Queue: 4 jobs
Job 1
Amino acid sequence: MSDLKKIKEEFSLKLKSKLNLSEINQVKSDLFGKDGLITSQFKKIGLIDDSERKKFASDLNLIKDELNELIDLKTKEIEIEHINTKLEKEKIDVTLPERNFSSGKIHPVSQTIDEISSIFSEIGFNVEEGPDVENEYNNFTALNTPDNHPARDMHDTFYLDEKKEKLLRTHTSPVQIRTMLKDKPPFKIIAPGRTYRSDSDQTHAPMFHQVEGLHIDKDINMGHLKGCLNYFIKEFFEVDKIKMRFRPSHFPFTEPSAEVDIGYEIRDGKIVIGEGDQWLEILGCGMVHPNVLKNVKVDPTKYQGYAFGIGIDRLAMLKYGINDLRSFFECDYRWLNHYGFDPVDVPTNYRGLSR
Ligand code: DAH
């Protein structure tokens, strides 16, 4: 057998067996490298007799092409095999059942705070915050409630020291003071948060929530207060009309002061807000007392405005039909699961009732 035939048979056989990429590279260099078998045959062409040279050269080229083709085929085969094993290994089994996971619920009070903040932000109020541990000055004195003022006793304050200088804030009104001390007028803010009084029964808890409102500018009057509260209550309870009345009242930090009642009736054992001839008190408000403005270095001859304080828990109870305030703070998982809101499905400005 001629050398060419031997090379061809030997390597065709090899290229049909199982090879990996580096073995293929070895074959390539054995055949076509500098001293490769085929390369050496090409070098021989010049030495061959004239009569045989043409045939030899054409046979050699043929074999070279055939072997190259076999190498290409084998390389592709290996690459495909490689991709297939990768696919096999990385396959995602979509038939697997999903893992069980349980998500928490948003507490109705947090949900209500979100709703209130979203309604007031839509009409230009910024959200402010203040600390739960306050000083006596911000909580009382600056709010025109000096020492020995009878209103201090009404608040059942938790004092934190003997001198009664530090306390748990009894309302969110001190955030009015903090805001006005740190910035310049005009002010248009709400301040939701926790408040504390030593009181506990079905409608009172020692910790509860309020949202404070404050709007101070050059020409703000009680008409603005009424319009703002009317808008808020309608938006919050998702009703087109609301019966609302201002009842004269007294707060040291407002003059005049009022409490706001909204109309309701009981229909089929359920409370319906906005109609009927029963009244429900939901907030306190008034025009900010000039003494309060003076205490925060705002000139009451140039600036005036209104303030209000709303009980958040009461609003949440009314809107979501919860009748014991204490259940809000018992952290009963079953209660939360029932009254809580799905954190994924509820956008922050969700108003809730259409649920
Ligand atoms: N701070 C009052 C309270 O807790 C509520 C209140 C009444 C707040 C009138 C105000 C207001 O800002 O103007 O009883």
Job 2
Amino acid sequence: MSDRYELKRPVFFVGFMGAGKTSVARRLARQCHVASVDMDTYLERREGKKVKAIFAESGEEGFRALETDVLGELAAKEPLLVSCGGGVVTREENRAILERAGFVVHLKVSADEAAGRISDTSTRPLFQNLDAARERCEERGPLYERVADATVDTAGKSVPAIAREVQNVLVKEGVLCQQRK
Ligand code: S3P
């Protein structure tokens, strides 16, 4: 008998850059045999361009418009674990989609801890300077909390430990249901 799970609703991981959204969603997907998708990777494939190039060509506004499009697209699919870009909560219409369509998990991290985790900041146009990142992280904190159905503090924890914690929350909330095979 293997542990298989079914997702009843989409799960959106939100949180600041470096929170571990992509790694945790991937890990959880593997341990529960459900599908995951990373919003930025999906967007890059759809547009045939890297996030960095989109920022350079169309600015943050251009990127945000694409991000809203992609969020709507992913929210309409069969339930998935979706790791969102850190800025997804900055647009009101995105917050409405997150709240309406799925279960939102906030992976909480400080800008300082995030800086230690991000190996290559060159791919993140909005994490170029630690002081600016601290300010941005501070500003976004209340937005992450506003949309979150659950918050997991990631400070000092490993990806497997965080994934386990999220799994427990999702099972308890009835979002992730065990299938016996
Ligand atoms: C952004 C976060 C990035 C990416 C883009 C903008 C942000 O995603 O969407 O660079 O505004 O916080 P990650 O949170 O996956 O790094």
Job 3
Amino acid sequence: MAELTYYGHAAFMLETGGVKIWIDPYLKGNPTATITPDKAEADYILVTHGHGDHVGDTVEIAERTLAVAISNAEICAWLREKGVRTHALHIGGGHEFSFGYVKMTPALHGSSMPDGSYGGSPGGFFLSLTDGSQYYFAGDTGLFGDMRLIGDEGLDAAVIPIGDNYTMGPKDALRAVQFLRPNIVIPMHYDTFDMIQQDVQAWKARVEQETDAQVLVMQPGDSASI
Ligand code: NI
Ligand code: MN
């Protein structure tokens, strides 16, 4: 069990046992963000890939909070140059942290950094917390069949993109839910910009009709126990 807060687009904060774990803290420039980076509290920051709407305000938040960034080796090297403490992982590899195990999963996407430098391979994160709860944050990705393998781990919740254009759209995201088989699925990466507008309620209805998953539609600023 953990408390998940949504800050719009792909930005989340997961709190477990008093540890605050951010995922893709894009706040400044995010039209849906409900807080500014100077208000963010963080112990760890998970960065799925190098794009600006995911690296976001990692440097500013880490500078103030001394949070440790967890990402691939290339993104961690970029962040370290800016003074951020990091723990580098790479696709398929994981590590046991104080709050639980974090593994980097594959993603079908790009990963150039905001300054155009090389950001390694894009990823997602599988989290297995010390209390036994398990979560998957897909990051930006197209549908891939190995989501079945991630689903085999047993997921309390999965956070997946549905916006289309840059990532999976609603139809492929439904297939992703069929592969992942989570108890709860939380859609993200939609409605932030015109290009990724989606009818999330229609998607929720369809997913709940065709799978056993419960769709949790979070509004920016919402928190939920998952
Ligand atoms: Ni991206
Ligand atoms: Mn993105």
Job 4
Amino acid sequence: MLENKDPQRTPIDQLGEFALIDHLTKHFDIKHKSTIKSIGDDAAVLDFESKKVVVSTDLLIEGVHFDLGYAPLKHLGYKAVVVNISDICAMNANPTQITVSIAVSNRFPLEALEELYEGIRLASKFYNVDVIGGDTTSSTSGLIISITAIGEANEEEIVYRDGAKDTDLLVVTGDLGAAYMGLQVLEREKQVFLVNPNNQPDLDDYTYLIERQLKPEARKDIKELLEKLEVKPTAMIDISDGLSSEIFHLTKSSKVGCNVYEEKLPLDPQLINVCEEFNLDSTTIAINGGEDYELLFTIKMSDYDKIKANPHLNVIGHIVPENEGVHIITRENTKIPLKARGWSAISKDEDE
Ligand code: ADP
Ligand code: MG
């Protein structure tokens, strides 16, 4: 039995590695018949029969990718799964399994890891993926989480970044910039809290933005939606670092250029309001803010009629020959070269 004087803080070194893994993963069930062997051996065993397998990994480091000052561990666990699922969705594949590796210091009690794994469990349930293994090790200070996601697709379903062709339409799902502004709100509240811990923030005007930052969702629905609409994207990528840098990845891989229209960028009303409040240009935020986890893809112009009425899909531009470059056409109809500024750049020079 564990000796536990403080019910909220059970030191993890009381359990030992095997008991810890067992404790954290005992509620994980197996949902896919492709999972032949899950947690508990030297390696998991999978069988995808005639399907192709897609694999993607992400690494999240405390202090770099997340701040436990405002990201609750449950949300962090959920989001760590989501960012990986999003990469599988961006290949137009179905996520099926994940592995979860963590490095923790003894600063984290068992209860903290339980929270983290509760988030991982909820996301695995929502996205219908099996947790099939991982690794657990110690870290000298911060928390590190690495997740590998595995997915399946028929060969002809897979969509790469390099298939966009001249005249294709550029489409984005959902809306842009909200996750970035959610982070700005949280950062501001954290500063207020540091000055006066009794100050209870009123975050009602920012609920959508904060949710987009703390609990983003991957667009697992889009594969099915496009199948129903009988549209296959010619190229696709997920928006983790911001629209502009993803547009550059896609156009560079496809050896094309593109024109994006400012007036077509999908913005949530809450984003527009908060940008005014922070005195930031909403277009800049929509283009450069990161972590929206929406999908950016191209379709043949002839498929336009099939998608035009769908509220999830927004045509924001079109592909041009490579030598014409990558531009944004402003509301005033001026053509400006788009710059590939990612997520980290914007925080350094946001009023540039
Ligand atoms: P090894 O010594 O071969 O690295 P481990 O003792 O680390 O094996 O892991 C034992 C089993 O538990 C393996 O199936 C492994 O995939 C799984 N596992 C280890 N750490 C985690 C974790 N953090 N989350 C989920 N599964 C884990
Ligand atoms: Mg191990």
